[in-house]
């Protein structure tokens, strides 16, 4: 290449007609300078040379002036080039101005429907980007990251993150206190015990459970102190809560006694005085709630974490609402004014401790006009010490504006005041004080206990007798909705939306999941109202529409409505409708034991996660779902098509049987339907 270029510029250039020959006589030393140039210099010349092929005026000779390199430059040509560049720049400016003007005019003439279309298109692009980035992130970690999730060791069979960890067991704080952090989550799949069996269908499963499914010993059954615990009858494989037993009759008589103390004929009349939801603290094994369920009363069992013989685990195994919770250090994850009745029968809480701090939490979650029922030997104390403790509780109840309705044997019933003015009518300096505005939060997520009277500033301060009774409460009136910042149309549209969705679920998934007449291979057809789905967890409940639609279709289920802490807080609305629910951060473990839900439902939860700064991954979320699901349990995820598609690799890693299904009425969303396999330890 260098040789060819040298030849082109060397010698006398005979036979070549160079249009750039100068009228000035060439100097030999200039030629020598050219011949002696390096290949890189010649490359430079080869670039510059063609630019000089331009003639000045239609090929007429131009005035040339030698430059320092020995080449002649046309000064008039330079002027024309500058003029051309100037014109090009001006044209470009005009084009940009016209483009911006047209874009502005086009923008202001867009119709509202077009704007909505553009917004949804933007959302789809954004969600597709999130999905693509997720897939890229997974792939970038290599094949080792995409392998199946490992199985937990046998010691994790009843593992509950945030509770049975070294941090909680070795701490100097309250025993089994809830302590959550990202590092406490498990990175493996929890397997069931060796002899685990699929729970019996409801309602048989309410009264009979398999011994191997729960962590309890015969000695723990026989040594149990409470009425509801002693109501169990243990045989080789089963624990029975038999309705024909004398102990069951004792629970029925006990419930009847409470009704009479409220001035009612029997427990069936609880709804007439505004009682629908009951918080049962230290619930035994749920027999009180099991009996009241037949009266259309919904009882939420709350008890501390127990390494074995767990009240919560057995209650959930029976198909009844329950969750791990304690009022020893933190507020419960419920808003103020949440329950119509709080019940404590031999629950083990010393209400006189810490200056009555625990009783203040009861007052916070109890609605105006609600009832606190306490059964304890302390209420019928004989010794001076116990009498002193009983007097403290009784005096504190007076300062809380509770009315002592009745006392029979060891059971006492108080009624919370309907009127806020009662607190201001107390003697000056009366304790406990009313919470300041800063300490009286509407909703609580494990906040420290407050040594003051909470809930008095809430806009939801409405006596239970003035609220719509069940089942009318599911609709809520316009005034109640206005207190929550909503309109009647909002709830009506949500209800219609979910009724349609549940019908679609039925048509898509029956008879496998939702059928009232489910049948496993080899089983005989069961009779109604047997149902293989009983405990349902809704991970993003919003208004509780899924819960309402299931009840409208007469399904024998109960739903734990979860409101994520990173989304809109509609938990007060859910509880006011007569359902049960809880606030929760899904980057933390849910307060329940493994294998406690037949179905987990998540609508829009993945989208919600993409809008906030996440502290956890999607794999963390799905591993937690696997922990909560029973073997052969179901997961239904409804979300945008892009996010649903991104879950394909996760379901394979968890060994789930999964299918992605189209939704005819909505092209932007898809369903992910998964079943957890029944894996046994080998």
Secondary-structure blueprint of this entry?
Layout: H1 2-9, H2 28-35, H3 39-48, E1 64-66, E2 72-74, H4 75-108, H5 112-140, H6 166-169, H7 204-207, E3 208-210, H8 218-222, H9 227-230, E4 233-234, E5 238-240, H10 246-261, E6 277-281, H11 287-293, E7 298-303, H12 311-317, E8 322-324, E9 339-345, H13 357-365, E10 366-375, H14 384-399, E11 402-408, E12 411-416, H15 421-424, H16 478-483, H17 488-509, E13 535-538, H18 545-552, E14 558-564, H19 571-576, E15 580-584, E16 597-603, H20 605-610, H21 618-628, E17 629-640, H22 641-645, H23 648-653, E18 657-662, E19 669-675
Helix pairs in contact: 10-11, 17-18
Q: Sum up the overall morphology in one term.
A: globular
Q: Note the main sheet.
A: 7 strands, mixed
- Give the proportion of residues in helices: 25-40%
Beta-strand level of the residues, as a percent range?
A: 15-25%
**Low-pLDDT runs:** 1-73, 111-123, 131-144, 167-173, 243-248, 514-522, 525-530
**C-alpha Rg (nearest Å):** 38 Å
Structural class: alpha/beta
The separation of the N and C termini measures 75 Å
Give the averaged pLDDT, no decimals.
79
Tally the helices: 23
Biggest sheet: strands side by side, in what order?
8-7-6-9-10-12-11
Find the count of extended strands (DSSP E, 2+ residues). Answer: 19
